[in-house]
Amino acid sequence: ELKDALRNADYVLLAPSIVVYFIAVFFRAVRWRYLLTPMGLFPVQRLYPVVIIGYMANNLLPVRLGEFVRSYFLARQEDVKATSALATIAVERVYDGITLLAFAALSAPWLLLLGEFDGAADISRTTGLLFLAGTIAAFGVLLAVFTLLGSSPAFADRMEGWLNVVPAGIGPQAKKLFRTFVAGLAVLSSPSKHLALFFYSLPVWLLEGSMYFMLAYSFGIDEHFDSVGVLLLVVLLLTATSNLATSAPSAIGGIGPFEIVAQQTLMSLGVGASLAGAYSGFMHLVALWLPVNLAGLALLWKNNLSLREMSAASRADSLKSASSPAGDGD
């Protein structure tokens, strides 16, 4: 049945959906420019390829090591410290989570009221609620800590004081890295900037959700729901759950958690297991994973670099940053 679902799908919308994805990545570069503003004004056209390389590296390296590759590659091109750039990427991840949670908070209650979850087992509902509650708590704590670090020097000083327990041999270097990281959180100094970051995040995820919507028609997912409006709510929830499942460092490229959670989300809404599995796997591996990997590798080749070199250099740069004088750049 899985093979039948893949064979019967209409792939005419695949190319447009990939174009939409790269537009979403462009808006990620726009958001990153805003986050980097305290460190300098960087043109979006220079940040865009760096973001693509970072996402490619995340897909091909374990436990999100691509974030280090991305921050190192930016520091290699621009006058910015890699550790500060890494802090802005951490803020990105928090706002990705907050935006996705907003999608879930908007869509799930409506789908529940419309009876779309009536066929789901009670254990599935309980698991979903626990997952969302835990995710909300985790992102809430991260947002609070990052905001306090970026806006309250006194709080940052207290947090730095905890590093006194670190062995004397590496204590000074650890504190330098911590201060450089905190410098990257300066953009979180006011409520208006938080609101701006949320609005910068919306086009990123609305465009990526549009991919899910387009390919839902390719696989006939739309036939399981009464209207386009219900399908839109389903897509919002699916975008949220599948990406929140990969927000914590896990398997390379999030392969496994994404497919499982996406499939289970669709099954809880009445879509058959084979169709849900075929759609989820194709969406992740062919539409999301492969195109950005090819683009990122092409950009590395253009710069006469390899992923192995970039990964090794980013780790070496982190060690060098830790041992360099406080005023040195990356």
TrEMBL record:
Membrane topology annotation: Multi-pass membrane protein
Transmembrane spans: 12-30, 94-115, 127-149, 195-215, 227-246, 282-301
Localisation per UniProt entry: Cell membrane
Gene Ontology cellular component annotations, sorted alphabetically: plasma membrane
Cited Pfam families: LPG_synthase_TM
PANTHER family documented for this protein: UPF0104 MEMBRANE PROTEIN MJ1595 (PTHR39087:SF2)
Organism: marine metagenome
Keywords from the named record: Cell membrane, Membrane, Transmembrane, Transmembrane helix
UniProt-listed InterPro entries: L-PG_synthase/AglD
Record's protein name: Flippase-like domain-containing protein
